[in-house]
């Protein structure tokens, strides 16, 4: 997927951004923040794993200089 393209409408982040927060109590907001922070950590871990895999593949298939 091309990072320069906009996110598709209806993706998770867009849906969350449209959610009204007024009905939530402080405890519910704290719980929501904790869940979102856990999801951010999961996504960052996956991103780092993918980046490491890509670097390993690039190193393996990198043309050797003479």
**Major sheet summary line:** none
| Uncertain parts | none
Task: Give the number of DSSP strands.
Answer: 0
How many DSSP helices? 2
- Using the CA coordinates, give the radius of gyration: 19 Å
SSE arrangement, N to C = HH
Looking at how many chains there are and whether they match, the oligomeric state comes to single chain
Write a brief structural summary.
By secondary structure, the protein is mainly alpha-helical. Helix content is 65%, strand content 0%.
Explain what the structure shows:
By secondary structure, this protein is mostly helical. The chain has a domain at 24-66. 65% of the residues lie in helices and 0% in strands. It has two helices and no strands. It is elongated. 0% of the residues are buried.
List the helices and strands and how they pair.
Blueprint (H helix, E strand, L loop, with lengths): L11 H7 L7 H36 L5
